[in-house]
Design a protein that fits this description.
Radius of gyration: 15 Å
Shape: elongated
Structural class: mainly alpha
Strand content: under 5%
Largest sheet: none
Length: 71
């Protein structure tokens, strides 16, 4: 799975989870939904994504050269 696909999956999961928590637990969870949305907008302008750094730092995603990406 590509880094972009992982980030989209995580962002979608965070948004759906925070919407559910906002509905059933506390409306304050909607602030987390807004945070994720703002990070997506910010990353489209700056081309920097915090989740990308987190995935690389934890080793969940390692850059590998494969025949598909030129290696």
């Amino acid at each position: 799975m590509t880094m972009e696909a992982k980030i989209r999956m995580i962002a979608g999961t965070f948004i759906l989870a925070s919407l559910a928590l906002g509905h059933w637990v506390s409306p304050w969870w909607y602030l987390f939904t807004a945070f994720v949305g703002l990070n997506l907008i910010q990353s489209s302008f700056t081309r920097w994504c915090l989740m990308e750094d987190i995935l690389r730092a934890t080793g969940i995603h390692k850059d590998r050269m494969t025949p598909a990406n030129g290696g």
